[in-house]
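Record passed on underneath.
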Amino acid sequence: MKNIIYIVLIASITVNIIYAQDNNTYSNAIFPQLPDAYDFFIAREGNNKLPQYIKTDYIRDDYKRKLPDLNNETNLSFFEKYPVELHLTTRFSYSILVNTFNMRDTFLSVGQTFHNDYIAFTGFITAYGYFDTHDPDIDYPYIKGNAGIYDGGVQAIFLDRILVSARGRATYDINTTTFLLMPHYYDRNLNPAYIDTPDYYIPQTLNGPGIRVGFIGNHYEIAYSQGDYRHSIPKAFLFRFNIPNVEFRLLYEHENRKAPEIWNNDVSESLVQASSTFRLPLLNETMWINAIAEYTWREGDANYIRLEQGFEWYMLNIALREMIHIKNNITKAYLEYAIFSKFKVDSAEFNLGFQGATDGRYYILGSINY
């Protein structure tokens, strides 16, 4: 509850700052002028030129493709083909104290969009790969590398707003945004439970083939999703809203977590996650101040609080993450810290650096995002 209050305060302060700016005094790079409600929710999205500083998760989340401004185009009687869209993300780490190498969160997604005046239709497929070496203090076989199809399907957006999607991993996942190198979550569908992941990291929701339906714009999404993981039938509602500097995200998810091979609603449990992400550019976007406040409640499991603070200046990145884990009335707090360099070449981003934690884990890490 305290963390939710912090989220609301951040939101209130940020919105008040933005609206308090006079058109002649603010910098458009920091506080762009917001459109009215008509342009935000009703008008064609081509009228909305707001920048977006919160980075999209191109692997798990829905997003609006940057199609031509249909308000300035001649009427399209047939579908026009948009260029092939390619996204790559991979993360690799070397655990210093236990001398093990891990490669996780490696995804390659390929898609193409066809559009006319009334519909944008996208087909895509996403492959995954991972390799995990084990904790030598635990007696179990080495984990071999693996690869396969992670997701795939179609997404249609009607009249700029109405979202209909059928895909291989349909249920909305928890928030994946982070300003550190090591993620704060792990994927139970891919990674075994005995990898060197601490219990205060948040497990992703169970997932499987299904649908997503709702409303989506460049700066908001309200949608329902449902998948089929064995007999779990995970379901989720997502509300997401962003202005250039702040994104708010609220997720409710319900799944048969204890025995997904058996259908019984009595063993189904809920998840609620509320998060706020903040990015403020300074000095002509050569410096960034970043922050995340997030609260997650998993029924039958624990409460998780995640706070992050990040500072970027040219190639230098310094970030902190505080994780609070409350289970069985026992509260534990952990601190993670990272320092790394970020290199950008066109739309590709390369990161390399160090991350440590108060629970005794120390990594040399790198990542690639394209």
